[in-house]
Amino acid sequence: MSAATRASSGRTKLVAGNWKMHGSLASIDALVSALVAGKKGGAKMLLCAPYPYLKTVADRLAGSDILLGSQDVSTRIGSGAFTGEVSGAMLADVGCRYAIVGHSERRTLFGESDAIVAEKFKAAQQAGLVPILCVGETLDEREAGRTEEVVERQMKAVLDAAGVAAFANAVVAYEPVWAIGTGKTATPEQAQAVHAQIRSMIARQDATIASGLVILYGGSVKGGNAAELFAMEDIDGGLVGGASLDAAEFLKIYDAASAR
Ligand code: PEP
User: Is 103 a catalytic residue?
Assistant: First the structure.
C-alpha cells in the first residue's frame, strides 16, 4: 500500500458504492469494466450491488482488488423457511465481504427498527461479513437540535446488542437522511462533528477499537466535494449512492480518497 493511501490516522480510506435498485446486466457490466480499468489508487473500493447481480459482479472482479458487498442481509442465520430472505452465509458464498445494514431507506421505507438493524449487524458478522452500519438524522431531527441524540440512540442499540468488540470488525457510515439523494451535502464541519461523536462513543468503551474504526460519510458525495470531506480528521471515506452509478464520477471520488 502506498504511503499516500494512509491518512495520518493510520486508517485506510474506503469508498463504497451503493447501487440501490438500479442497473441491468448490461449496465453493470459496463460500469464494473470501467471501474476495474480505472482504479489506480491505494484506497479501498467496494461495490454494493443488487442481489441478482452479485455473482456476476464477483466474477467480473476476479483478479482485481475491488471488494464486493450487499445492500442488506437477513436477520436469520443458516437456512430455513424464510421466503424472500437472503442470509449472510449466501452473500459470503457468492463473494461478498461487506453488508450494508440500517440504511435510512431500509429504516424509513421498510420499517426497520434499531433492534432489527442490530440483529442484521450481528447476522452479518456471524457470516464473516463486515457490516457497514448506517446512522443519521432526518431534517426535522437536525432542525430540532436532536442530531446527537438520534445518532447516539442508533449506535447504542448496536453497541448494547453486539458489544464494543464487534466494532473491531465493522464500518460505520454517517448518512444524514436529508443529504441522501438530495444534492445537499453536509458541510465538512457538520459531518466531522458527528463522526467525532461516533468515534468518542466507541472510545468511551475501547480507545484502540475507536481509533481503528473506519467511519464513512454518505449523502450526495460527488467528485467536486469529496476532497474537502475526506480531508476531515474523522472522515475515512464515503458511502456513495447516485454518483457510484457513473464510473467517471465515482473514480473522481475514489481518487480524492486515495490522495489523502
Ligand atoms: C446512499 O445511498 O447511501 C447515498 C448516500 O446516496 P447519495 O450519494 O445518492 O446521496
Answer: yes
Q: Where are the beta strands (DSSP E) in the chain?
A: 14-18, 44-48, 67-70, 98-101, 130-135, 171-174, 214-218, 237-240
> Count of alpha carbons within 13 Å of 41, Cβ hemisphere only?
22
The cell numbers describing 74, all together, are 437477513
Cell of 24: 441491468
Q: Which of 177, 180, 235 best tests ligand 1's pocket when mutated (most atoms within 8 Å of CB)?
A: 180
Q: What is the DSSP string of 67-89?
A: EEEES---S--S--S-TT---HH
Relative to beta strand 44-48, strand 14-18 is parallel
- Domains (range + CATH), the chain: 12-36+43-72+84-258 (3.20.20.70)
| Reported confidence tier of residue 8, pLDDT bands at 50, 70, 90 | low
* pLDDT, tens digit, 9 for 90 and up, residues 9-26: 889 999 999 999 999 999
Q: What residues contact residue 35 under an 8 Å CB cut-off, 6+ apart? A: 45, 47, 66, 247, 250, 251
Mutation pick for ligand 1 pocket among 137, 220, 222, 250 (CB with most ligand atoms within 8 Å): 220
Average pLDDT (210-236) is: 97
CA distance 183 to 38: 25
Distance separating alpha carbons of residues 104 and 253, to the nearest angstrom:
22
Whether the pLDDT of residue 216 is over 90: the answer is yes
Residue-wise pLDDT for 36-95, tens only, equals 999 999 999 999 999 999 999 999 999 999 999 999 999 999 999 999 999 999 999 999
